[in-house]
Structure prediction request, 303 residues.
Amino acid sequence: MKVLDLVRYYGDIHGFTAHSIYRATEILREMILNSDIRFLSFTGNLVATGLRGILAQLIDEEIFNVVITTCGAVDHDVARSLNPESYLKGFFEADDKELYERNIHRLGNVFIKLESYGPSIERFTYELIDELLRIKSVWGVRELLYEAGRKLSKDPNSILGAAYRRNIPVYVPGIVDGSFGTALFTKSRISSFKIDLFKDMGELADIVFRAKSSGALIIGGGISKHHTIWWNQFREGLDYAIYLTTAQEFDGSLSGARTREAISWGKINREAKHEVIIGEASAILPILAVYMIHIKRSYIKTS
Prediction:
């Protein structure tokens, strides 16, 4: 059975997560065909898995043209480009004290060699800043990540590399919350390098205000989710919205909030098409990705 046939079959199940996936694919299809601004929002943990290549392909195929993510996503993208063998298959029940003694970080059931993470990211960042200081001393985060993507662009699985190749902006509102951001800070203490966060905000404002129609696939929660829906409230909300999450809403968290709650804030339009898929991204995103790539390529062939 092809993935497209599987998705259609999900539509006949008429219940639970399968039907949510089917509904989401229908909304994503309409978003791809109708929206001029399409946001891809995701959390950093996903980039530590094989989903990194899928996210990069969704950008390379220009299915999405604005990316909002976390500093952790930048960290893992850089580390995996520089040290592709440093991310290992592990297990949740590992002895974390033993891992610490062996200089191995654990992210769920992914093991990451310490020397290939923090120190490697710091060296990459310092070298990048040394290059950029020859041009100017104050940089917007999006500008900075574009230049990082230039250095990673030979890696077909790099998210920043794909964004560089397609000139798609990547926004990271929490840029200091990770190894890359900490390296920016320490470098700024010994050089004239500075970050202009407001420059990114101005660019996002221009994007949402000029959008005729905007849609978003939001994977996970946290700051990347909120930043995406927050900016869209200034244009009366997203017209299409898909959440893919495992978070619960009973604690009032933003991560667990459903699309219907965003309507009360004006972050999703009252007339928008929206769906929440309750499920784990590594199992569900590949299905959505195959569907979206098929829709985009079919549209290009017929247009």
